[in-house]
Amino acid sequence: MALKSTAYSLINKIILALFSFLFLTLYFALVSPNLTLGDNVARQVIGEKTTWLSIAFILLVVGAIIGIVIDKRIRYCFNFIFYIKGKITAPILFMLVVGLQLLFVFATHPAIGFDPGAIHSALTNTTDDELVSYFSLSTNNLPLLLIQHHIAVYFSNHSWLLFDIVTLILVDISIILNTITISIIDRTKVIWALYLQSIFCWSSR
């Protein structure tokens, strides 16, 4: 029993360390070139919009940490909102993230290059030599192509918006399933699980 408890504790620490490291993906998602809307293409200026966003994000995080450390009122405020009232705050935060995801998807739904672009293009262009070569080399993506083909046929639609919505639904379902699983293992961790998954849910967009 002691060995089992020690192994369980070690696995929890590894998972926590992994999630803490992956939290960096939120920052890199915010400063991604995909968010550089409004760049001056004529002047070849790239990344103007991410500079202020990066600075604002860093200042916000540093300011919050400093405030929590040195000011008891701010520390109590954070504790009250995110811990004492966590059962209310966490679900609201998750619903807010879902709402922001929907807004982001419907406002942009941009085309994506690389593998997703090849799969999407193959839905309507089945004779392109480059696509034929791509799937000859990347046969692992054929099941995904077939799944997307069935979705496109079912909805009579093959737009990027449709597959953005499908992706969004699948991501949110995975969060719900993860949360249910965590509640079965340890109900006291559900609130923090929702916080973490809400952050990663938004960063995945």
Topology:
Blueprint (H helix, E strand, L loop, with lengths): L1 H21 L1 H7 L17 H23 L1 H13 L1 H22 L6 H9 L6 H9 L4 H14 L4 H26 L4 H14 L2
Helix pairs in contact: 2-10, 3-4, 4-5, 5-9, 5-10, 9-10
Description:
The structure is a single chain. This protein has 205 residues and is mainly alpha-helical. It is 77% helix and 0% strand. The protein is built from ten helices and no strands. Helix 3 packs across helix 4 and helix 9 (160-185) packs antiparallel against helix 10. The radius of gyration is 21 Å and the shape is elongated. It starts with a helix and ends with a helix. Mean pLDDT is 77; it is low at 37-50.
Instruction: Find the structural class using helix and strand composition.
Output: mainly alpha
Instruction: Tell me what portion of residues adopts beta-strand conformation.
Output: under 5%
Order of helices and strands: HHHHHHHHHH
**Number of helical stretches of at least 4 residues:** 10
| Low-confidence blocks of residues | 37-50
Q: Give the overall pLDDT as a whole number.
A: 77
Gross geometry:
elongated
Oligomer: single chain
Termini separation = 42 Å
What would you report as the Rg, rounded to the nearest angstrom? 21 Å
Q: Number of DSSP strands?
A: 0
The major pleated sheet works out as: none
Residue share in helix: over 70%
